[in-house]
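Re: that chain you flagged

S.,

Sorry for the slow reply, it's been a week of failed gels. I finally had a moment to sit down with the sequence you sent. For the record, here it is as I used it:
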Amino acid sequence: MDRCSASVVYFINKFCRTCDTREDFADLPFKLFPRQEELVLWLEAREENRERGLVEKSRDTGVTWVCCAFALQRWCFRPNCHIGFGSRKLELVDRLGDMDSIFEKIRYMLDRLPPWLLPEGYDRNRHDNLAKIINPANGSILKGEGGDDIGRGGRSRIFFVDEAASLLRPDGIERSLSATTEVRIDVSTPKGMGNPFAARRFSGKIPVFTISYRDDPRKTEEWARKKRAEHDEITWRQEFEIDYTCANEGTLIPGDWVRAAVNFPVEESGELIAGLDIAEEGMNRTVLISRRGPKVFDPIAWQKKNTTETAWLARDEANRLDIAEIRFDCNGCGAGVRGTWDTAEEMLGFRTVPVNTGESPTDTEWPDGKTSKEKFLNLRAELWWLLRCRFERTYEVVQGVANHPPEECISLPECSELIAELSLPLYFHTDRGKVKVEGKESMRKRGIASPDFADALVLSFYPDNEEWYSPGILSN
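Prediction finished late last night. Pasting the structure tokens below so you have them in one place:
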């Protein structure tokens, strides 16, 4: 009893059961796989910090079951703990006999707990009603609400909003829940960029937890091939690949190209080069990303530092990692970092390359005979397009349709922020036919925070030598 009270993971793994109606033997012990255990600990952190969070997921990764089991443990062992569940319709929250509904999952686990774990005096006939389960021993309540009524049922310690991207009138629900709970957990598969769930996901203001079908040890490559064949491409990419941009016209780097580059096998080569995207003090994140040739390493990010602090912190990280060169955007707040480094050049231990992405493109000639000045609006568009070329080549190699040299490809680490941000910017053509990459202000109007991780990667591949402009890396 003490161990169950102290550990949600122990409680679930030892005493909870789940079911899969697609299997011959539907009743199964609930054994969390590693990423699900991480989700439990992440939920505990949100509760302890009294802050909201967002869970983006592939379909059929057991997230709703985990949230239900987490709530059940709190109901059993935390006095006066009110936990709410909501979805776009009440029938999705509770419908007797329907295992797809949230409360039937809770009942399934509750009914199969050992009798000694049940609250004293608990009687299902008296304490289990439609979308409401009461613990008579400690006053805790699990409650459910649907549609426009979400958030109107009184205060909750935690409130889970299931399939939050599909809410019909999310603004009213936002107002209601903001007054009744501090710990709101939005859970959903993506439904494109045009909804508040996607806006919150990319706002940079709340913690995000990502769980993919690749995290589920039951999901093999054979399973993925079969499932992909059963769905249209947009459904597969949204609901299994967690792709918010697959239906967006003008996506600069498609999500499929980005995913093909994750852990793409390439050898490290050359010096360790880094890109530094610098944020204003208290806003967004400053991100340092290093690479050796086409192989990219885990980013380092920090917030709430002024430009002087950022300059020295970046220096310390560069010396720790043995970075040979940092390429950084010298516009705006980057000018402060440049000034600090210029006055202490002999103390740095690495080269600095200031980059003004607002300048004109280079004179590079592309295979279609046009120069970068003719093809792109500014240097920023040229740099993003060059990075796009790397991802396109990597995707073609993975798909088996081309055999590009590894040095023309790119290999990413498993960093969810970087992976997500790379597919966020859109591109357009100006009246004169030049490529323009969406600016940060335009992205903010779409509810998307500055893509700091992606911008740092772009800077790390700033083409400062002839090798990068070889015909092989250029694409129309």
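What I noticed first: Residues 164 and 207 are 15 Å apart (CA to CA).

Talk soon,
D.
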